[in-house]
Amino acid sequence: xxxxxxxxxxxxxxxxxxxxxxxxxxxxxxxxxxxxxxxxxxxxxxxxxxxxxxxxxxxxxxxxxxxxxxxxxxxxxxxxxxxxxxxxxxxxxxxxxxxxxxxxxxxxxxxxxxxxxxxxxxxxxxxxxxxxxxxxxxxxxxxxxxxxxxxxxxxxxxxxxxxxxxxxxxxxxxxxxxxxxxxxxxxxxxxxxxxxxxxxxxxxxxxxxxxxxxxxxxxxxxxxxxxxxxxxxxxxxxxxxxxxxxxxxxxx
Length: 252
Ligand code: 3PY
Fold this sequence. Notes:
Layout: E1 4-9, H1 16-32, E2 38-43, H2 49-55, E3 61-65, H3 82-86, E4 92-95, H4 98-103, H5 108-120, E5 124-129, H6 133-137, H7 141-153, H8 158-161, E6 165-168, H9 182-200, H10 202-207, E7 210-213, H11 218-225, E8 232-235, H12 242-249
Helix pairs in contact: 1-12, 5-7, 7-9, 11-12
Bound molecules: 3-hydroxypyruvic acid.
Residues 9, 97, 169, 174-175, 213-216, 234-236 line the site of 3-hydroxypyruvic acid.
């Protein structure tokens, strides 16, 4: 059975002290609320990871990085490897977010290397996919998303694929305040699941958690999460305010 997941993506926000304070606040709220079987993930900047893993006591919360290097180790000044991330106690890594694809030139080729390194280090990739506005407007959105999945993930065995979380984030809904409608989200999530079933079989497709990301907030989370193929969210701005994040976690 696939998991319900709400993952926060803090992006480049919060200094260390602010991050610890926010994580403790979320931890307290998660511990004192019946969040059913929802798994919470906090995607924090690298410098927060060690301290967040110490500060979080709830077994319902996992810590995630937002990127990792595409090489194992060596002379790559400024890079942070998957094994370094794992050594902090962190369990997940967000990969291929549209901001990394567009601002830092992350290609599918690079993402294959990063995905492999995460899996080798027992880190769960939260693999992001999604089309830009022109691609949706010209009717290419299904093809774009299918290629991103095929090029970035279809080299994996069915067993390794089973360790991956997918996040569909239409780029036109990121940081714009515009959200995909519940119908648009369901339509794409169902298409993604069908694409996975063609490659890995129906069981693997049914077991994969597919999150929706892009201006997801307490006011629209319930409607988005009520869709059969939407298993939760990857949350940007609303994950920076504990009450808002909790409003989304409790929206199932
Ligand atoms: C957003 O909701 O803005 C995101 O990019 C989540 O990753």
